[in-house]
């Protein structure tokens, strides 16, 4: 059942690559493509707080569109402007951006879980994201597909316990090793909210969904299987089942488990169409590990963008050759290995896109 009538899609490269198809060239987008390296983003940020933008659909739409306008014809996807930490907010936690994320009252012990909302109505708590998605789909006029996203339970759980970024992960590691059962229960509670949130994003108009497990690399392979993988599988299984049951479009799912290259082979059967890669694995090696079972996304070191045009061109050329199948682009979405950082020159980003178009083209 189509809930909205959206303009038809003119560029489906991203969706075809995610399904494993051969494409005339690799689709390309950049994690954090709407962010502080763009002067037009910094201009909006001068007069609006970060979460105020997330909660104001008109502003979120405007910022989502900024890189699409600037790099029109070069970028093949948009990603809704929001943050993974809107889920802990929906569960009842306060999150500030000061300038990194900080939680005034993190979860110190399992007793603190009692402070979380017992029922999370995503339409009520996160309706502003759905509204921004629907408005963005209209405003995009079919130029490129719109990606929706959420944080992975392990990464969200870590933020909720650490109260922000961490170098040692002491608090969250204390939780999983001292309170493993309570940890697993909370991880599944978060996963259930993620399922509702992702299904709601598809209902609102998202055309591909990405799950960000930014802190996956902090776990040993054994502990990843205990504390991250089950909730990732729970999400893929239940999102697919709900989309089918509610007659919603079957939507490609991407998992970006940063630092979890140790789990790459086993993640091919976690229920995701595409696995995102950081830059610490060689593209050809990743291809060997996944045995053609999933599409791949990534993975240039974002800091190459500081190296100037020659460095960018040779890194892109190498990356395109490394991901190529039978001499051309197939089942690959070009991207960076993590989010773009604030000091990058937008003109160097344009060059990155141009190089991907050139070197990933099927001849
Ligand atoms: C861990 C994580 C967060 N948020 C996100 C992740 C997963 C991806 C990753 O590992 O980077 C995901 C995210 N955050 C943001 C998006 C928007 C869409 C996009 O353009 O990619 C997405 C997909 C906007 C943002 N989220 C944030 C900014 C910058 C904040 C600002 O404008 O002051 C943006 C554009 C803030 C944020 N939000 C978060 C951090 C750690 C920070 C501060 C560090 C930083 O600034 O890069 C949590």
From TrEMBL:
InterPro entries per the UniProt record, alphabetical: UROD/MetE-like_sf (IPR038071), Uroporphyrinogen_deCO2ase_HemE (IPR006361), Uroporphyrinogen_deCOase (IPR000257)
One GO CC annotation: cytosol
Domain Uroporphyrinogen decarboxylase (URO-D): 27-36, 147-163
Catalysis performed (reactions): uroporphyrinogen III + 4 H(+) = coproporphyrinogen III + 4 CO2
Superkingdom of the source species: Eukaryota
Pfam families assigned to the protein according to its UniProt record, in alphabetical order: URO-D (PF01208)
Keyword presence, Kinase: no
Gene Ontology terms for molecular function: uroporphyrinogen decarboxylase activity
CDD domains in the cross-refs: URO-D (cd00717)
Example GO BP: heme biosynthetic process
Pathway: Porphyrin-containing compound metabolism; protoporphyrin-IX biosynthesis; coproporphyrinogen-III from 5-aminolevulinate: step 4/4
SUPFAM superfamilies, alphabetized: UROD/MetE-like (SSF51726)
EC numbers, comma separated: 4.1.1.37
Assigned keywords, A-Z: Cytoplasm, Decarboxylase, Lyase, Porphyrin biosynthesis
Location(s) in or outside the cell: Cytoplasm
Physiological role: Catalyzes the decarboxylation of four acetate groups of uroporphyrinogen-III to yield coproporphyrinogen-III.
Classification via PANTHER family: METHYLTETRAHYDROFOLATE:HOMOCYSTEINE METHYLTRANSFERASE RELATED, UROPORPHYRINOGEN DECARBOXYLASE
Family that this chain belongs to: Belongs to the uroporphyrinogen decarboxylase family.
NCBIfam families the record matches: hemE
HAMAP family in alphabetical order: URO_D (MF_00218)
Quaternary assembly: Homodimer.
Protein name per UniProt: Uroporphyrinogen decarboxylase
Source species taxonomy: Eukaryota, Fungi, Dikarya, Basidiomycota, Agaricomycotina
